[in-house]
Amino acid sequence: MQNHTTAAFNVLNAGALSLLQDLGRYGHANLGLTSGGAADKQAFAWANRLVNNPDNACCIEITLGGLELACLNDSCIAITGAEQNVSLNQQPIKTWQSYRIKRGDILKFGFAQHGCRAYLAIHGGFAAPLVLGSRSTVCREAIGGLTQGQSLQTSQTLAVNRPSASVMPLQAVPQEAIPSYKRHLVIRLVLGYQYQAFSQAAIKQFFAQTYHVSQQADRMGYRLTGEPIKHDIENLYSEGISFGAVQIPLDGQPIVLGPDRQTIGGYPKIGSVLSIDMDKIMQATTGCTIQFCSVSLDNAQHLIQLAQQRFKQTQLIQL
């Protein structure tokens, strides 16, 4: 246990995939290390705000559900993101708000109904070793989390970074600010310089059709299925890849790259998804449909700034 930490939970059931995540590990792509970090940064941000945490406090990202925890000390928690039928001491509780919990309480996540990733924040943030400035877990790179990039394991003990405050205000996100995780998504994309290597027919086809999320969808990337985008682009030099980049590999089926993406790649990229729309994609499940639309770089920056302003200006409801 680290200094200045307090035991928070014992893991009774680790669920399908439960990961410690903060905002990510940046500035180390030259070492081949990806950014990682919360897949849905909007839900992550709301969870931390509900318990008065710093923006980068470590949360648990629960993919598909199944996590069960026994509380070891009194604290304050918040749950956001996908609807996973959460219960506290076998009583259903709402998400997108905070709760006081007591020693001996049992917190249980069912399985995702809408969306796929939920976020659990605790006042003070979960404790884990800092690796290159981040606590984020990247399983593929065996880095971060509690033990060398592993997901949470049954019987582990989770700690909080400082003793919980005796009194914390209970708060909720206003209904109008809570995202709805839809089965059909319209996703905004900024065209990249390589789009000029695609034919006009291929670009028109890309924006006109509706794609389906395949079973090959995880934190590394979301492979989509649809009518293949044909191209004969070869001999590209491998280059750095951004979060949200849309690669078109040889089979013509787009891949939207996520937080655990590889750091370089040689497939042509038609563009990059807006960061605020990546939150939607990372909540999508197999069979969800996606249609892309193009926006200019200036418009994209404006839309992101507006979203950031709305987040800051939205007042939490005091319970």
Automatic annotation (TrEMBL):
InterPro entries linked: CT_A_B (IPR003778), Cyclophilin-like_dom_sf (IPR029000), PxpC (IPR052708)
Q: Mind telling me which Gene3D superfamilies this protein's record contains?
A: Cyclophilin-like (2.40.100.10)
Tell me where in this chain the Carboxyltransferase domain is found.
30-311
Protein name (Swiss-Prot/TrEMBL):
Allophanate hydrolase
**Tagged with keyword Cell cycle:** no
Q: Source organism's superkingdom?
A: Bacteria
Q: Which Pfam families does the protein's record reference?
A: CT_A_B
SUPFAM superfamilies with a match to the protein in the record: Cyclophilin-like (SSF50891)
Q: Which GO terms describe its molecular function?
A: ATP binding; hydrolase activity
Q: Which organism is it from?
A: Saccharobesus litoralis
